[in-house]
Amino acid sequence: MTQTVRCAKSHDGKVWMVCVAKRTYSFAGGRVTLADEQAPVVIDPDIETDQHDRYRTLRDDMDLFPPKPATDVVVTGRAHAPGKVRELMVGVAAGRSARVLRVLGERRVEVTLEGQVRFPDPAPFESVPLSWDLAYGGYDAYAHDELDPPERRKGRRVEPSPREEGVFAYPRNKVGRGYFLDVDRDRADGELLPQIEDPGDPLAASRFFVQAPRAWLDAPASGGLGWVAHTWYPRIMRGLGAFLEHDPPAKPIREMAFADGADLGGPFRKNEVLPRFVQGAAPGLATERLRGDELVILKYLVQGQPEVQFALPGEAPGLSVRPPGAPKIFTPEAVLQTVRIDGERRTVSLTWCGAVRLLAPIAEEQLAETKLGVTWGRW
User: Fold this and answer.
1) Cis before residue 267, ω within 30 degrees of 0?
2) DSSP string of 261-325?
3) Which of 70, 75, 78, 155 is spaced 20 to 30 Å from 133 by Cα?
4) Where is the DUF2169 domain (predicted)?
5) What does each C-alpha distance from 66 to 22, 27, 229, 314, 367 come to in angstroms?
């Protein structure tokens, strides 16, 4: 078990003393036991950057948010097939939060001289990493230069390099593959196609090329079970409001088909922060606030086991804390913030949070002297 006390602001600017307690369990044989190695509280987001120090992906989000509207369910690991297959449906469910993905073997797009698109059969595979790099997305640098050339004066480029990618990097997933705007089609011939898809919004040859940069909202949804970066849709829309340029969608927004996407219908105001901005789970995996005793189902996410089922441990921390200078001890209710599932290590970590409202932030040295009492019990 790991624990900490920090100050944090909620989406509406209120200041809180956040009390975090975390426990990691191993799962096997349909039950969970306390793990020998306990995952630490994540103080700062673990962000992957590129060679230009630009934000690419979110490997792990911090644990120090005030209570979230719902519990994030986040899965890392690989898809494991029962032998060599060309396609496999994998998924996770915890309470009412659930997501199913289609995983495929490697394949490359074929584009004829006439610009017609064809997808060949996927190659056989046994295991595929659950990585956003293998899902639909990416950055179409060629189209960016063709449709929005760098600013030049007297033949010299004056715009900084690298450029701000804007919507030429797929807003749902900037690091994936398969995102091509409809410019010079032959350049896409032989490029790798996504290996992880949302079966409810798959990539097809008929919709391979996106007709315009602002039409990205109608492009296929990216398939993933990991953390959604703060700078990706839908999270950035919840954090900055009317920020991403897009044409009116010609079809229903895929994320709104999930129970946790109702707030994406808009209208949005610039710089508006919605309560669900703090939710970092993939669409469908932050549907409700879990109690901590729900059944978890993993399909083809653990090697050698087509389906794994176990119940979360059914225990929660009792929290007690006295802020510096406070006349009494506070006992905030602990809520389940995040469930992290690692299919390779066969572990599940539960992060709990309680919060005490403050009038102003507390200095770090005072926080260091604040004692957090934690007692674990079942209900």
Assistant:
1) yes
2) -GGGG----TT---GGGG--SPTTS-SS---S--EEEEEEEETTEEEEEEE---EEEEEEE--TT
3) 70
4) 13-352
5) 15, 28, 19, 22, 16
Q: How many residues are recorded in the chain?
A: 379
Indicate the range of 44-48, 82-86, 369-373 predicted with least confidence. 369-373
Tokens representing 132?
A: 């956003």
What residues pair up with 356 in beta bridges, in sequence order?
17
Alpha-carbon distance of 81 to 261, in angstroms, equals: 30
Helix, strand or coil, per DSSP, at residue 222: strand
Q: Which residue has the higher pLDDT, 341 or 246?
A: 341
Cross-sheet strand order for the sheet of 295-302 = 196-197, 97-104, 87-94, 295-302, 305-311
* Side chain identity at residue 354, one-letter code: G
Helix (H) or strand (E) holding 367: helix 364-368
* Mean pLDDT value of segment 365-374: 88
Gyration radius of the chain's alpha carbons: 23
State CA 190 to chain mean position distance.
29
Q: Calculate ∠ Cα 170-204-218, nearest 5°.
A: 40
For 232, counting Cβ atoms within 10 Å of its Cβ (0-12 exposed, 13-18 middle, 19+ buried), the class is: buried
Say what the pLDDT of residue 152 is.
65
In this structure, what DSSP letter does residue 170 have?
-
Write the Ramachandran bin of 292: left for phi over 0, alpha for psi from -120 to 50, otherwise beta. left
Contact indicator for 22, 3 with CB cutoff of 8 Å: yes
For the stretch 262-282, what's the b/e string if a residue is b when 16 or more beta carbons lie within 10 angstroms of its beta carbon?
Answer: ebbeeebeeebbbebbbbbbb
User: Is the per-residue pLDDT at 163 higher than 80?
Assistant: no
CA angle 76, 80, 81 (to 5 degrees): 155
Instruction: Report the predicted TM-score, pTM, of the whole model to 2 decimal places.
Output: 0.95
Residue whose C-alpha is closest to residue 172's, from 232, 252, 122, 104: 232
Q: How far apart are CA 127 and CA 141, in angstroms?
A: 30
Closest CA to 219 of 186, 181, 263, 265: 181
Query: Hey, what are 180's tokens?
Result: 């091509």
Whether the CB-CB separation of 268 and 242 falls below 8 Å is answered with yes
